[in-house]
Amino acid sequence: MTINVHNWVNHYSPNDLYCVFMFPLTPLLPLIVALSITSVLSNNCRCTFGSPCWPSDSDFETLASQVSQPLIHPAPPATPCYSPASQNCSVVKAGWYNGLWRSNQPGASEFTNRETYTSSNGTIQACYLNTTLGVPCRQGSVPVIGVDARTPKDIQKAVKFAGMHDLRLVIKNTGWVTMTFSSS
Questions:
Q1: Between β-strands 117-118 and 124-125, what pairing exists: parallel, antiparallel or unpaired?
Q2: What b/e sequence results for 76-99 when a residue is b if at least 16 CB atoms lie within 10 Å of its CB, and e otherwise?
């Protein structure tokens, strides 16, 4: 099975399965790097959100029953600024350029441009902090569902699920490199 850790051209599409690893992955880094290189070279298509091949709610419920934490549904970090009822936009604005704040947001990347997705036809999906642009907040490259992996078993179940359903696997971890290998 090829694990697509990074799509070099378009970053991540909005349909990637997302894993947050909350413990050191140092022993796994050679494996992750090797798999990312393999995935770039193989250029396999994966099942995308909204496609007939996308796992059912029942499939995700099964996965949720096999991991130690509830599944997460990451949203772009600027999402609260698009709702007049939300009072969290000031928190988002205060933390927007703070790396620690961004690392604690499941839908955030270290660099904001990695949260956008450019389709092959040139259209852009994003959720910008500047709401005066007049564009809607869209999912962009933020994965639609994720596993908050806390144990090796969580990682195994997430990787197996992604392989069984031909999903891209995005690994978000802190403390590695600032290159795009470890960003979501």
A1: antiparallel
A2: bbbbbbeeeeeeebeebeebeeee
DSSP class of 76: -
pLDDT digits (tens, 9 = 90+) for 144-181: 999 999 999 999 999 999 999 999 888 887 655 555 54
Domain limits, the chain:
1-73+143-184, 75-140
Q: Which residue, among 131, 110, 151, has the nearest Cα to 24 in the 3D structure? A: 151
pTM over 0.90: no
Give the chain's length.
Answer: 184
- Residues with Cβ within 8 Å of residue 130, at least 6 apart in sequence: none
Tell me the pLDDT tens digit for each residue of 100-138. Answer: 999 889 999 888 888 998 888 998 999 999 999 999 999
CA distance 37 to 19: 19
Q: Does 31 score more than 60 pLDDT? A: no
Of residues 35, 37, 42, 64, the one with CA closest to residue 148:
64
Tokens at 125, concatenated: 């999906």
CB 144 within 8 A of CB 17: no
